[in-house]
Design brief:
20% of the residues lie in helices and 29% in strands. It is built from five helices and twelve strands.
């Protein structure tokens, strides 16, 4: 655990070797100050792990989401891992709760911009339905989401485009529905969590992967909604 930046916050290290490490980001903490304004960022805790204070985040994770974030210990490795990520060899799978009953599988292939004011570029997201819950005032689906590309807010924007917005999404979701789930089920955050990470490297380092249990601020509302979780605080069959 890391806690030197805050006496009230502990950041779990999920994996580490001589080249990289993976931290478990809670909802509400930004990864990097360049991505949002905040006094404390995940990169602060990451720099505390390295001898020279070097820590380079690979890929984004929205402030309101939680789960695995990969860091490289050198700039050269960060470039290499970024290239692996662009080629699909650094993968993250997300759990999400969305409005309505989704199809069993969705392949959302819809161009979006890299930046809010930029030109549209190719973007693709795969969605698999895991379970349904007869919640009020609308039924919801628990889905596993894998972004094939990595665009700004890709998952959130793609799910909105498919008419299955994320519960708790203040930017792309529905305020009335978010408030209802906050009141009825205690969901006070974005229902998006990186539950599985995979890094495919060549050579002696090989591939590494792991799963990330749901945090209490997401698992407890999910149980209240009627979803079944296993001993590892993941939906049954995913642990």
């Amino acid at each position: 655990m890391l806690g030197s930046r805050s006496t009230t916050m502990q950041i779990e290290c999920l994996y580490e070797d001589d080249e990289l490490f993976v931290l478990n980001k809670p909802s509400g903490l930004v990864v990097h100050r360049g991505w949002a304004t905040a006094e404390v960022a995940l990169v602060d805790f990451a720099r505390d792990r390295t001898k020279d204070g070097a820590a380079h985040p690979i890929q984004r994770l929205d402030r309101s989401a939680s789960g695995a974030v990969l860091f490289a210990k050198t700039g050269a490795l960060a470039q290499s891992l970024s290239e692996l990520a662009q080629a699909g060899h650094c993968r993250k799978d997300y759990l999400a709760i969305v409005r309505g009953e989704t199809p069993e599988e969705l392949d959302i292939d819809h161009p979006i911009s890299r930046r809010e004011d930029g030109p549209r570029v190719a973007a693709r997201t795969l969605v698999q339905r895991l379970a349904l819950a007869p919640t009020q005032p609308r039924h919801v689906s628990l889905v596993s989401v894998t972004p094939i590309t990595g665009r700004l807010h890709q998952i959130r924007r793609h799910l909105k485009h498919a008419n299955y917005p994320l519960i708790g999404d203040v930017n792309y979701g529905h305020g009335d529905l978010n408030r209802a789930f906050r009141t009825r089920y205690g969901l006070v955050r974005l229902a998006l969590h990186v539950y599985r990470w995979t890094i495919e490297r060549t050579g002696s380092k090989g591939s590494v992967s792991g799963t990330v249990p749901l945090p209490d601020d997401l698992s407890e509302p999910m149980v209240a909604m009627g979803f079944k979780l296993g001993a590892e605080r993941l939906p049954l069959g995913l642990a």
